[in-house]
Amino acid sequence: MSRFPWTFTPTRHFPGNNTRDPIRTPRVRSKRPRRLSYQPRGMADTSRSADMPKPSPQPSQLASTPTEYPRALGAVRLSYLTEVTTSPGRQRASIQLCTEQLGFTLIAEATDIGVSARKMSPFERPSLSSWLRRPDEYDAIVWSHVDRAVRSVAHMTELIEWGQKHATTLIFGMPEEHQPLVVTLQADGDVIRRCMNLAYVAEQETRAISARLTSAHEVLRATGRYGGGLVPFGYKKAPHPSGVGWCLAPDPETVAVVRAIVDDVHSGMSLVAIARKLEAAGVPVPRDRHAQLQGRPMGGRRHGRDFERFRWTAGSLSKILRTPTLMGHRVHRGKTVSNAEGSPVLIGPPLLTEEEFQALQDILNARSNGIHPKRRETSLLIGVAYCAGCSGRMYFATRKAYAYGDYVCRASARGTTCPAPAAIRESWLDDYTVSRFREVFATDGEVTREQLLRDGVRVTVAKGRSGGGPDRLAGPDTSRLTFTIGGSLPDQLQP
Q1: Is the distance from CB of 387 to CB of 399 less than 8 angstroms?
Q2: DSSP category for residue 390
Q3: 66-70, 121-125, 306-310, 368-372: which has the minimum mean pLDDT?
Q4: First-last CA distance in the chain
C-alpha cells in the first residue's frame, strides 16, 4: 500500500451548539475563492466575520445558481442494464442523501452504464475519466457505495492517491451504517484502512461471482446455450429450442456481410483493403453491431480514447474469419467445445460449411506463411521512430519470406488512414539512429532504447520513392530521415 501524508485535525466546536462537526475540515487547495467548510446544512458558521464580504462566483462554476456549499460530482456505475433494473435510481437517491448530510451541492453526474469495475479502473471509464481530468470543477466525488467506485485494492489505492494529489474529497455511501465514509486530505490511517478493507471485500466478491459464472458457462457450453457476452458477428440472440435460455441464430443483416468478406478474401483482396471497404460502406464492427442489437449507442472508450463508432481493422477481420463460430461451433478460448462423444457442440446454424471454412483457413494460412526474423522483445526504436505522413508511431513488422523486418506506419491498425505511410528496414534505421546518437553525444558505448527515450530522441521517416533499382539495397536514403533531440535538429552540428 502506498504511504500518504495523512494528518490529524481536531474536531471543531461551534458557538451556541453543543454538537461537534462530524466531518473533519480538509486543508483543500484553493480551487476557487470560496470557503470549503463541510458542516451540515443549517449549522451556524462563525468562522467568517459578519462584515466580511463573500466572494462572487467564478465563471467556471458549473452550478446554475451561486451557492456557498462545496461542489460535489455524483458517480453512477452499473455493469449491466436490464429493463427491470432499478439500480441507477437507487444509486442516485443514495448520492443525493450523502450530499445533503454533508452539506454539499450536487452539480453534475458521471454515468457509466455497462461498465465493469473489475475490468476498468475509474480512470478508464468513459464518463468518469473525463471528469477526473478536470478536478478543479468540483470539490468532491460521491458514490452510493464503495463497490460502485472500485472492486480492487489496487484501484482504491490509485483513486485515493489521485484524491490526495488534487485535494478532492472522496465520499462513499454506507447505507448499512447511515453515515457515509469520507476520505479528505486529512484522512487518518483508520479511514484509509477501512477503504482498503472494503475494496478487498469487493474484490473477493468479484472473484467468487466470476468463479460461479465460469462454472455456469461450462454447463451452458456443454448444452450449446448462449451464456452472454459479445455475440459473434453474423449471429443474434434467439430463444433456445428447449424453451430454456438462449442460443444464437443467423443475423440477416450481417450474414450477407460475412459472405461478402469471404468472397473478397477468395478474390485476392487483402484484409486491410477489405477493412477500408467496410469502413467506406459504414458497416458496424462486431462490437457496435452488438450494441445495436441491445439498443445501446455505438462506440465507447478504447485505449484511452473515445469513439463515436469503432473502426474496422485487419486484426478485427482476422478474428472473425478465424473463429470456428462460423461453422456454428460453441467456442471457448478460440477452440471448439466438444461433447462427451467428441463432436462439436453447436450454438447455432452454421454460416459456412466445414469445407468452406477450411478453404478460407488455407488461404489465410498461405498469406501468413514465411520466414520470420528473430527479434528482441521490444524493438530499439519503438516510441522513437515516427511516420512523417501521419505523425504516428512506427512499429516492427515481419516481412514474408525474408530474414529481416521493417519499421512501418501502423495507421491502418489504429483505424485511420495515413496519406503517406512510411516503411524502412529495421536494421538500417537502427544503425542510422545509433550512429547519429553517438555522433551527437560523442560516445562509443552501447545505445539502448531507454537512453533514446530519456534524451528525447525522435527519428521521423518520410515515405520512400518508388523505383531506384539495385541501388536501393545498398542502404537507407537518409534524405527522408530526420533526427531530432528534444525539439532541436542536430543534423547540422554546431562547431
Answers
A1: no
A2: T
A3: 368-372
A4: 52
Grid coordinates in use for 279? Answer: 469502413
Short-list 136, 164, 145, CA closest to 74: 145
Identify the pLDDT of residue 189.
87
The rounded distance, in Å, linking the Cα atoms of 56 and 1 is 41
353 vs 28: which has the higher pLDDT: 353
User: What percent of the chain clears pLDDT 70, i.e. is strictly above it?
Assistant: 72
Lowest mean pLDDT among 186-195, 222-231, 332-341, 393-402: 222-231
* CA distance readout (Å), 464 to 312, 358, 431, 469, 472: 27, 38, 18, 13, 10
The whole-angstrom separation of Cα 395 and Cα 400 is 16
Residue 392 CA: distances (Å) to CA of 16, 155, 341: 65, 30, 51
State phi, psi for 78 to the nearest 5 degrees: -145, 130
- In angstroms, the CA 392 to CA 383 distance is 10
Map residue 238 onto helix, strand or coil: strand
pLDDT digits (tens, 9 = 90+) for 244-287: 677 788 898 899 999 999 999 999 888 888 998 999 999 999 88
* Coil, strand or helix at 155: helix
For residue 35, give Cα distances in angstroms to 44, 205, 489. Answer: 14, 40, 50
Identify the CA nearest to 408 among candidates 396, 399, 416, 418: 396
Exposure of 259 in the CB half-sphere (CA atoms within 13 A)? 11
Instruction: Write down the pTM of the prediction.
Output: 0.41
**Rounded to whole angstroms, how far apart are CA atoms 189 and 22?**
17
- Is residue 464 within 8 A of residue 477, CB to CB? The reply is yes
Residue 186: name the closest of 207, 170, 201 by CA.
Answer: 170
What backbone torsions phi and psi does residue 218 show, to the nearest 5 degrees? -60, -40
Report the range of poorest mean pLDDT among 131-140, 187-196, 232-241, 416-425: 232-241
* Rounded alpha-carbon distances, angstroms, from residue 47 to 12, 54, 68, 218, 251: 11, 13, 13, 63, 67
Residue 460: alpha-carbon gap to chain centroid: 28
Rounded Cα distance, 254 and 299, in Å: 18
Query: Above pLDDT 90, what percent of the chain?
Result: 29
Say if residue 400's pLDDT is above 90. no
Q: Which residues pair with 76 in a beta bridge?
A: 111
Task: Count Cα atoms within 13 angstroms, Cβ side, for 31.
Answer: 21
Residue linked to cell 462584515:
51
